[in-house]
Design a protein that fits this description.
6 helices, 2 strands
Length: about 160
């Protein structure tokens, strides 16, 4: 049975840097609405230790419920989103990271390196399609230095 005794962040708010104990107690006992009310209506903010506690908590569904309720209380039914496009200038990479299934060596089948003109064309197409964010990742090409990457970024920024 849940502890339904009134619990509040106010008891620890004098020590704003760490009211972790109360967040933990409220969260663990299912008092999501109390947390939402105090975060939204009273303007309390999570301390670093509160955030770490919630981040490390194994109950992802309860954490999602808390996040949803705080967002709904603060934003109502307004929805915010962005439309982004991933443009990866190259998949050729000097490293061989064990976790990467993306990178290729220059001689590998499927290896590619787009020219700046090709990257700009992809940016232009994305912009025409309503994209409002370009997300760029890729390999560390053995012949591309910082100056080349900066040229790519300047060209994309100019086009976007």
């Amino acid at each position: 049975m849940l502890n339904t005794a009134p619990v509040s962040l106010k008891t620890d708010i004098a020590n704003q840097d760490d009211h972790h104990g109360n967040i933990a107690q409220l969260f663990d006992n299912g008092h999501i609405e109390t947390i939402v009310r105090e975060l939204c209506d009273h303007g309390y903010r999570l301390s670093v230790s509160d955030a770490l506690y919630l981040y490390q908590h194994p109950n992802l569904l309860r954490l999602g419920e808390l996040a949803f309720r705080v967002c709904a209380r603060r934003e109502g039914d307004r929805v915010f989103y962005n439309l982004n496009r991933h443009i990866n200038p190259t998949n050729i990479c000097i490293y061989s990271c064990k976790f990467c299934s993306y990178a290729k060596k220059p001689q590998d089948e499927g290896a590619y390196a787009y020219s700046i003109a090709e990257i700009v064309a992809k940016t232009r197409q994305a912009s025409e399609e309503g994209v409002d964010e370009i997300h760029m990742v890729g390999g560390l090409h053995p012949r591309w230095n910082l100056a080349h990457f900066l040229k790519i970024l300047r060209a994309v920024k100019k086009e976007a």
